[in-house]
Structures are given as C-alpha cells and as structure tokens.
Amino acid sequence: MSGQPLDSSMDSMEETRFRKRYQKLAIRLAEKFHFSFNEVEKLLLIYYKMQKSSKDPSQGVDKSQFRDILHCALDMTDDFLMDRIFYTLDKGPSSFMSMESWTSSLSLFLRGTFEEKIDFCFSVYDTLGERILGRESVFHLMKQSVISLGGEEDAEEIAKDMMEVLTKKMDLDRDGKISYNDFKQSVLKQPMLLEALGQCLPSRKDINTFTTTFGYKIIKM
C-alpha cells in the first residue's frame, strides 16, 4: 500500500486513522470497480472530507453535496436529471450516499464500459421503473431538455417533434414504446443516441479535468 501522504491538509495522525479505518473497504472496492487501490483511497478521502461538512456527518455525504459535484466538477446542470441520477446511483429513500455508492458512481462516470453506460442512461430515463419508455415519458424528458436549453416558449411543440423523431428512430419493434432492448440496440448502432433524452454522463473534457484531481495518468476514453 502507498506510504505517500494523501492530503497536505491532514496531519499525520488523522491520515493514519483514515488509512487504518478504510483500508479493508478500499481493497474490496478496488476489486469491484474500475480503480486501483491507491485511486480508491483518494476517492474515499474526497468523500471523507465532504462528509465532515454534511448536514448529518454520521449519515454520510448528502444529496446536495453530490449535486454540487455533478454541477461544478462534471458540468451537469439539469435539476430533474440530477435527481434521477442520484436515485439511479443510490436507490432508496435516504438522501445520503454511502462510500460504496460514491465509488461506484465515479467508476461509472470516469471508467465505465459502454454497456454500463447504456444501462445507466436507460435507468435514469426510466422514471416509472418499467424498463420501457412510453411516448409520455419520452415527451416529458424532451420537454425538460428543451426548457433547460431555451426557456418554455414553444417548448411543448419542439418536445413533441423531438419525441416523434426519437421514437421513430429507437422503437425498433414498432410497438409505440422504447424498450430496454430497443434502446440498447439503437445506441450500439448509433452511439450518439446514448444521451439523446438528456445528459446523464460527463463529457470527455470534464472526465479528464476531474481525473487530474487524483494525480494519476489520464486514461484515453
């Protein structure tokens, strides 16, 4: 395990306590996600420091802190989709995120496979949890995107037009709905459709910028 100091703002005693407390967790998470042990340790340190300023530190990092990361570090700005992203990444009624969910989220955003990202984006869009996107769901997502880009004027008509185009393009079995299989096959054929219903993932530029905070080599995406 690395003996290099993790953070200059921590004294040696606090760092020793941190490493001792979370070493086993870091080992387990490094085996489970797309990070090395040293990278997980640095991710857990970021979580640990955020947790100190949480509205309830005993519960962990809260939803508003995670939204700040999405907004400020990963340039995601749609309030509706940020709520959906949080729920998809950390299912359940709690407004707090665990260390494992935090690591899992960054594993997906920074190093996730294309199939992991397809499954994630569909889950974000699937607000009813039925593994099917009906016309009403697609319209709602399109309207949210239009409003966030240019205000409410004519948003409904633009959203209807976009819904028709996307449904026609992605509804492969022509049953009037976009199933998970429809979505996956459409995106595998045309990767640009991955976030056609709204931004769920950071851009390559934001991935690279965030990655530099760990002090490890940037991976080409």
Describe this entry's structure for a reader.
It is a single chain. The longest helix is centred in the first third of the chain and has 21 residues. By secondary structure, the protein is mostly helical. A two-stranded antiparallel sheet has the order 1-2. It has a two-stranded antiparallel ribbon with strand order 3-4. The C terminus is likely disordered. It has two domains: 111 residues; 79 residues, Recoverin, domain 1 (Orthogonal Bundle), CATH 1.10.238. 61% of the residues lie in helices and 4% in strands. Helix 6 packs across helix 9. The radius of gyration is 19 Å and the shape is elongated.
List keywords for this structure.
221 residues; mainly alpha; Recoverin, domain 1; 2 domains; two-stranded antiparallel sheet; elongated; disordered C terminus
Secondary structure topology:
Blueprint: H1 12-32, H2 37-52, E1 61-62, H3 63-73, H4 79-89, E2 96-97, H5 99-111, H6 114-125, E3 132-133, H7 135-150, H8 155-170, E4 178-179, H9 180-189, H10 204-211
Antiparallel strand pairs: 1-2, 3-4
Helix pairs in contact: 1-2, 2-5, 4-6, 6-9, 7-8
Number of domains: 2
- Identify the overall geometry: elongated
Biggest sheet strand order reads 1-2
What is the number of E strands? 4
Output the helix-strand order: HHEHHEHHEHHEHH
Helix content: 55-70%
